[in-house]
Amino acid sequence: MIEIDSLTKRYGRHTVVDNLSFRCAPGEVLGFLGPNGAGKSTTMKMVTGFVAPSAGSVRVCGHDVQTDTLIAQRHIGYLPEGAPLYAEMTPRQFLEFIADVRELSGGRRQERLDEVIRQLHLGPVLNQSIDTLSKGFKRRVGLAQAILHDPDVLILDEPTDGLDPNQKHEVRELIRSMSKEKLIVISTHILEEVEAVCTRAIIIADGRLLVDDTPEALAAQGDGDLDEVFRRITQGDAPAPDQEDAA
Length: 247
Prior knowledge:
Elements: E1 2-11, E2 14-24, E3 29-33, H1 40-47, E4 55-60, E5 63-64, H2 69-74, E6 76-79, H3 91-101, H4 106-119, H5 135-147, E7 153-157, H6 165-178, E8 183-188, H7 191-197, E9 200-205, E10 208-213, H8 215-220, H9 226-234, H10 243-246
Parallel strand pairs: 3-8, 3-9, 6-7, 7-8
Antiparallel strand pairs: 1-2, 1-4, 4-5, 9-10
């Protein structure tokens, strides 16, 4: 569902993403990992068409994100870091607006609105202005807009940021329930998240792919301590595989 080939992003002389290549398929929950500044969010923005690459290409469900942007984006649900919302709107108004943008209509529109409100437990705050919501509820509204049109591909940047332990559990269960037919990419630095929901993990640092494996295989390299493996890999103490082999 996602094909990334030699993806590169430069800002002046600074290379943020460096010749990145990998492919993902339906049914995968991919943990996209790296330390702060590794290029995770920039990669997600290029995958979703919000930032143009300096070189390389991205295809989503067979559509080139640069040349068939709108068609590719129809297949994507995107929760960006910080999830910008219209603070003066209520969650109900905001989701109605997103339904308009996604061209949902008729019975399907109301069905999807009712479903995401139920899944994210937004009923108690539906008519409260977004600027008065807690960080956790704002994050849940952001996730609701990402899944409203029932996309084939979900790109989630720190999906449980700001949620309490119970809310994190609910969101992880939601991700598991959706993963059977979708491709879900979770950009995160929270290794607990990867162990809880991901079937595959990619680690990048300085914009380069270092590891592509299952969370279980990675944890086994450190006697079950994924944190230790992550530190060793991203600090340069483990050999990086060839990107083509890893992809």
